[in-house]
UniProtKB/TrEMBL annotation:
Listed name of the protein: ATP-binding protein
Highest taxon of the lineage: Bacteria
Lineage: Bacteria, Bacillati, Actinomycetota, Actinomycetes, Micromonosporales
Source organism (scientific name): Phytohabitans suffuscus
Family statement: Belongs to the GPN-loop GTPase family.
PANTHER family membership: ATP/GTP-BINDING PROTEIN-RELATED, GLIDING MOTILITY PROTEIN MGLA
Keywords: ATP-binding, GTP-binding, Hydrolase, Nucleotide-binding
Pfam families membership: ATP_bind_1
InterPro entries: Gliding_Motility_GTPase, Gpn, P-loop_NTPase
Chain segments annotated as transmembrane: none
One example GO MF annotation: ATP binding
Length: 196
């Protein structure tokens, strides 16, 4: 009997991806929209103690917040399966980001274009972490408060970092944003190899 697996039978390569961003930008929504398993979430009800501290912006119906992480997964093709780790957005949980990013191939940094000042720390974090990332601007209700060039300028995003618009509630739109990230990570890896 032959116990050697053919490439078609080999299990997909697991790849860790972080879905990060400021408070209430749509990270949990993003993971939930694409995950092929019921996503693991750690939502806690927001209390009045957060009023004036946590501004959910356009997400005025928001009643819960992530306090540890979101987890989901999606098979891209026979050779690749993504494991998605969503971060908490509130800055007081920032200490979790190092652990959640450990071993990740890259990050999808979700941005709400109407609250750019809340989104800068996430962009800054991944620039310093030297992890490939893509800035994904969540078009709440199909509209962007600023166009993509303005977002790039306001957040001082390097021209080599892709900035894309997407809809966190739409599976295909999330998939497309993740494919841009995979492309970007592959580019980085190839560039790193040729520089050696
Ligand atoms: N209308 C609209 N609502 C959205 C969209 N994306 C997210 N929401 C809503 O916005 C709220 C916040 O989304 P979440 O996915 O919880 O945001 P988050 O970034 O995970 O929030 P934290 O974990 O608290 O930082 C939820 O009530 C969503 O239903 C969108 O594209 N359009
Ligand atoms: Mg969340």
């Amino acid at each position: 009997m032959d116990f050697v697996r053919s490439p078609e039978q080999a299990p997909p390569i697991p790849v860790k991806i972080v879905v990060a961003g400021g408070f209430g930008v749509g990270k949990t929504t993003t993971v939930g929209a694409i995950s092929e398993i019921s996503p693991l979430t750690t939502e806690a009800v927001m209390t009045s103690a957060g009023v004036g501290v946590d501004d959910p912006g356009q997400a005025t119906g928001k009643t819960t917040t992530t306090v540890a992480m979101d987890f989901g997964c999606v098979t891209i093709d026979r050779s690749l399966k993504l494991y998605l780790f969503g971060t908490p957005g509130q800055s007081r949980f920032g200490f979790m980001w190092d652990d959640l990013s450990h071993g990740a191939l890259g990050a999808l940094v979700v941005v709400d274009s109407s609250r750019l000042d809340d989104c800068y720390p996430a962009v800054d974090y991944f620039e310093r972490a030297r992890l490939p990332f893509v800035v994904a601007v969540n078009a709440f209700d199909g509209k962007l408060a600023h166009d993509l060039d303005e977002v790039r300028w306001a957040l001082a995003i390097d021209e080599r970092i892709p900035v894309v618009a997407f809809d966190a509630r739409n599976r295909i739109s999330v998939r497309d944003a993740l494919l841009v990230l995979l492309d970007r990570a592959l580019d980085d890896a190839v560039r790193g190899q040729t520089a050696q």
